[in-house]
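User: Teach me something about this protein's shape.
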Amino acid sequence: MKKYLSALKAAFPYTIPVMAGYLFLGMVFGIILGSRGYHFGWAVLMSVFIYAGSMQFVTVNLLTSAFDPLSALLITLVVNARHLFYGISMLRKYNGTGVKKPYLIAGLTDETYSILCSTEAPEGVDSASFMFLVTLLNQIYWVTASFAGGLLGSFFTFDTSGIDFVMTALFIVIFINQWKSQKEHMPAITGVVVSVVCLIIFGPDNFIIPSMVLITIVLTILRNTIERRA
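Assistant: First, the predicted structure itself:
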């Protein structure tokens, strides 16, 4: 128990910025789902078992459109393709985490990935427990906010036009914070340049997967240079 308490004390401060974002975004998701006529319980279940912010927003539209499982599968693959690369980059870090590993994999979101990539457990704190609690706290924030938003959306009517832009805004903020916290900006610049080029070539509906593949190739080639300059 003492091990988890020390890990919780170390993990919580790192999750405060995520909490601020998730409480707002989760409520927005719940409100949108509730405004479509779904019980707030569905918002909670989706946040527990799907737990993929951007895909949950997309799922709202999938639920209110014609049933097309193949299209849903392809959309999910495209929207969450980046997690394939997140997972590969976390193989070494998650090594030795034991029974916590399945949850660490399932709970890996953009924001959690950002924290775990840029942060090490403080001295004297169990690394696996630290990563587990960062992941768990972030999901608790999201589930709680989804519940609150779903409850509001069930009882009140909102004009939700343009509200889904909050996901784009969050990614912009994450990018800015990463830029400020890192001395070496080549990975960020590579990501932006490659994404813009792929957007021009493949169009807005098909550029994500080619971008991810090309970014991975470029960063693999430049890995030694980046590590020397970091």
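Now, about its shape. Residues 2-35 form the longest helix (34 residues). Residues 2-162 form one domain. If you'd like, I can walk through any region in more detail.
User: That's plenty for now, thanks!
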